[in-house]
Amino acid sequence: MTTATAFDQLGVHLHPSDNVVVASRDLEEGAAAGGVTVRTAVPRGHKVAVAPIATQEAVRKYNQIIGFATVPIEPGDHVHTHNVEFRAFERDHAVGADVVPTEMVPEVERATFQGIVRADGKVATRNYIGILTSVNCSATTAKLIADQFRSPGLLDEFPNVDGVVALAHGAGCGMASSGEGFDVLQRTLTGYAEHPNFAGFLMLGLGCEVNQVASLAEKWQLDSTKLVQTMTIQEQGGTAATVRAGVAAIRDMLPVVNQVTRTTVPASELILGLNCGGSDAYSGITANPALGAAVDLLVRHGGTAVLGETPEIYGAEHLLTRRAVSREVGDELVELIKWWEKYTADNGGSMDNNPSPGNKAGGLTTILEKSLGAVAKGGTTNLTGVYRYAEKVTAKGFTFMDTPGYDPVSVTGIVAGGATVMCFTTGRGSVLGCKPTPSLKLATNTEMYQRMSEDMDLNCGVIMDGEATVQEVGQRLFQLVLDTASGRKTLSEELGFGQEEFVPWQLGAVM
């Protein structure tokens, strides 16, 4: 996991320049190691000072600044929100400074998975029928249609169909018919309509909304074999009539959608989404670096990964800009950071409103600390592209998408961008699915994994336990991603997650 140090009996000293260690267990007052004696009880995952830190001096973890002391901190003190504050500081973005050629795996040796190749060449990992909604007013009707296909056994004669899923949302009207908010909603719905994991879909509207079904349909660039139906409740003659028509439309789709086979395709066809939720202090030590190791493998095999959550790279974005393949890519990321600084300020907030209470209970003190752990999900390869929320991801390699830190909204944007598998790291125990894309849940610590084993697909806590290295867990995860892409169900799929978690980012005035 890390090099042995004199502080091992207290916790993990991530870099020789760090003036804190991360407690590997609950520490009682008087616990001692490396000449440091703990002065008060410290929960596991929280930080202990291992050197004097003067008022206004930087607190360092990962050899990076995570905050500034508000009072003198002595060796052995608990270091957290009571004596550390967030403060903006200058960061050297040094665009492209760390770019190096990626050592690609020879094509004949590249990994493969069993995927579904669509007529347009896109490769799916799942085979769903979707019910998409143009407006919240059609949400209940969409769910009523989907509910007709939920009873056990109803889809048994269609074993190659993964299910019928209704994706409702809270927008679509009471908004301007142009501008950023409207564009984001249409881009998101278009991304789902074009997603290869949907073999067919019904787009359902009310009829009088701002976000008209007809205007949406004009934007779609669909596989010629994708089955598409559009209707509105008003044209159909009401809710009951629409449910009957919607059910009939989907019944007609089922036999056709069932006629697919999985074939061997290269891992280069995968687009892997990266997200975290309910993070703790171990996230940046175990699950996030392990996911980063898996990302490095995927990129070396020719695939694509998409990191999101712009507020959760804040203060660590310079580690990504240094890996940007061009000035344009690096500058785009810096501009996103500036937009978020203005956005939060205009709304009376601060970038440090994140971490959440749960993050802080898990030992994360500032957004700077959280971000430094979060960027580890992106591995070490070059940053090849930066995308707007829900924009179609076209670059190969490691990329970034502008999304909020709120998990369902972030994941919705990444899936709309084309992600066909999602990896979601969590320390506190988040539960999330994101149909039509399978979501793998990665636990940062063994205690939570054991407590929530029916939700967690992989225990990365074995890294902290000393039972495996980051690279070893990354290799296991890479294989798990391939297996999942080949049809192996994730636990969130087994539990039925993924319909209610569709939450497009809502920007602009609600009128």
TrEMBL record:
Protein name: Altronate hydrolase
Species annotation: Geodermatophilus obscurus
Phylogenetic lineage: Bacteria, Bacillati, Actinomycetota, Actinomycetes, Geodermatophilales
TM segment ranges: none
Key words of the record: Hydrolase, Lyase
Family the UniProt entry places it in: Belongs to the UxaA family.
Gene Ontology terms describing biological process: D-galacturonate catabolic process
Residue intervals of the SAF domain: 18-85
InterPro entries: GD_AH_C (IPR048332), GD_AH_second (IPR007392), SAF (IPR013974), SAF_UxaA/GarD (IPR044144), UxaA_altronate/galactarate_dh (IPR052172)
Gene Ontology MF: a single term: hydrolase activity
Highest taxon of source: Bacteria
UniProt keyword Cell membrane present: no
